[in-house]
## 1
Amino acid sequence: MSIRVTLDRVLLEKRMSLTELSERVGVTLANLSILKTGKAKAVRFSTLEALCRELDCQPGDILVFEDGQSNEASEAA
C-alpha cells in the first residue's frame, strides 16, 4: 500500500498509549489498533480530525505517502 500510517511513532513522541487516545477521541481500541497496524482501508475525516486534535499534530504526521514504484525499482536493483 502506498499510504503508511505512522500513528505508533506519533504516540511514542507524545508519550500516549493507544488506550488513552481511544478514550480521548471516542474511537474503539480495536479500530485504532487496525489503523495503527496499517490494516485499515479507509479513515473518516472526523476520526482524523479528532486524532490530530488530541495529538496536536497534522494529518501528514500520521499518514505518509510512499511511492510503490520507487520501492519496486530499488528491490529489483
Note: Residues 9 and 15 are 10 Å apart (CA to CA).
## 2
Amino acid sequence: MSASSSSIHAIYLRVAPADIALIKFLFESYEGVGIVRTADARTAVIVVLVVTDFLPVAREILRDLQLRIDCQEVSAPAVEPDDWLMREVDSH
C-alpha cells in the first residue's frame, strides 16, 4: 500500500463473538478512526478498516483493547467476503 492518506489498512482480529459489538462501538465512537466489519462469522474474525492518517490511533486503541479482552491480530481469512465494502477493499 502507498503511504497516501487515502490508503485503507485492514486489521484482522479474532475475537469472542460476544465482543464484536463492543469493538464495533469502540472504534466507531472515535469518529473517523475505523470501520468494523465481520470478515468471517464462522471463526469470529472481524476487520477494522483504517485510513493511513488514523493508523497510529487505531493501533493504540488495539493495544489498550488487548489488555482488556482476548483479541488477537490474525491474517486475512481465505473466504470470499459477502460484504460489498470488503469486496471493494480486497479488489485494490
Note: The chain has a mean pLDDT of 83.
## 3
Amino acid sequence: MITAHQPERFRRVLQSLLVAMVFVIPFSIAAIEILFPLLLVAWLISETGQATASQRTLLRVTEKAVLWALGLYAGTCTLSVFYSEFFLLSLTGLVGKTFEYTLLFLIAFRAIQQPSMPERCLQALLLAAWLVVLHSLLQQGAIARAVYKSTVRDPILGRTLEYVRMQGPYKNPNDLATYLMVVGSIALSDILHQSRIVWSRYALVALMIGSMVWTQSRAALLGFFCGAPLFLVLFWKDRKRRWGILLLLVAAVIFFCYLARLTLREALTLTDIGSLDRATMWKTAWAMIQTNPLWGHGINTFMANYTKYVGDSSRWPAYAHNCYLQIVAETGLVGLVSFVAFLIFLGSCICESLKIRKDPLLAGLAAGLVAFLVQSTFDTNFYALRQAALFWTLAGIAFGLCVQILRNNPQSI
C-alpha cells in the first residue's frame, strides 16, 4: 500500500533517474534498458499522489494537441501490428521501441517541471559531453599514430575500430556525430546566454563542434547548419554574438572541407559508396511504399521485407537510412502524418514559449532537435536505441519546459 509520503519520495527518485538517463545515453545501451523500467515504476507511483486530472486542464490547446498527436502515432503503430506479416516481430518493436520511447517522452515531460531539474539535466549533459569528447580525441590520437596500420584499437575500450574515424563510445562515426550535433547545440545556447565568459564551456563547445566535423558526417553537419539559424534569430539584435555564430559556422565548413579534401568531389557529386548505398535503400523503401502506401507493412518489419523488394538477393537487409521513408513503409502515410503532426505541434509550443522567454536550455534543445530531424533524412536515428532515446528524452524535456513557461505566463492561459 502506498502512503501519502511515498509519491513525493518517488518523485525525487524519478528526478535522479532522469538525470542518470540523460548522462548514460551515449555510453551504454544496457544502462538505458535497466534505467527505463526503474523510471517507469517511479513515474507511475509518483503520479498517484498528484491531481493529474486537474493539472491536465491547465494545458492549453496546442499542448494537448502534442499529446493527442503522439497518442495517434502510437495508436497507428499499434494497429499496424495486426495486419503485419510478421506479427511477433511487430509486437516486439511496438513494445520495446514505440511504447518505450513514448513513455520516455511523457516521463521526461513530467519530471523536468520540478524547479531544479533543468539545471541538473544540463549539468549531466555537459559532463557526459566532456567524457565523450575526451574519448573521441584519444581515439583520434590513436588513429593518427597508426596511420600505416591496417587496424586501430580504441585506447579506452580496447576494441578494434570499424572505421578509421573517431567514433567515441559508439560503433559508427555518424552516431557520434548525432550526439555531438544535438548536445553541442545545447551547450552553444548555454554559453550564448551567459553574461560572463566561462572558458571551460567555450572549450567544450569548440571541441564538440570540432569533433563533430572530424567525424566527416555530412548529414550531421547539414543538420547542425539547419539548427544554428535559430540562434541567429534569437540573437539577431546582439551584433557581437551574431557575428560570433556566423564565424563559427564558416570555420566548421572550412575545417570539414580540409578533412574531406581527398573525397570531397565524390561526396559533392554523391558518387561515394555511402551515397550509392543510400540510393539503393531509398529505392527499396519506395518499392515497399508503393505496394501499401496508406497503412504500410507493419511496425518494425522494414528489414524483414528488405530482400523481397531490393531486387538483389545478395544484399544484406538494412534500414532505409531515411527515417521518414521507413515510417511510411512500416506504418503508411497515416503513420507519417500523425508523427509529423506531433512534431508540428511540439514545434509550435517551443516557438510560442521562446517568444515569451528566451530560455537557454529550451533554445538549445530546439536547435538540437531540428538538427536531429534533418539528419534523420539520411540516417537511422529513430531506429538506433541510443539516438532514439536521446531524441525522445530531450523532446520530453523541451515540452515540459514549454508547459512550465506557458503556465507561468498569465497572458498565455
Note: Residues 51-57 have pLDDT under 50 and may be disordered.
